[in-house]
Amino acid sequence: MTEFTEIPVLDLAPLVAGGDTRKLAADFAKAYGETGFGYVINHGIDPVLRAAVFAASERFHALPEAQKQAITLNHSHRGYIAINTSTDVNSDLAEVTKPNQSASFMMMREDAEADPDVYLSGPNQWPELAGFREACEAYAAAMTALGQKLMALTLEAIGVTDRRILAAFDTPTLWLRLLHYPPQPPQAPEDLYGSAPHKDFGCLTLLAQDDVGGLQVQTPAGNWVDAPPMENAFVVNVGDMLHRMSNGKLLSTPHRVINTSGRERYSVPFFFDPHVSTNIAPLPGTGPAKFESLNFGDFLRSELEAGYEAHQGAEATP
Question: What CATH class does 9-311 carry?
Answer without folding.
Answer: mainly beta
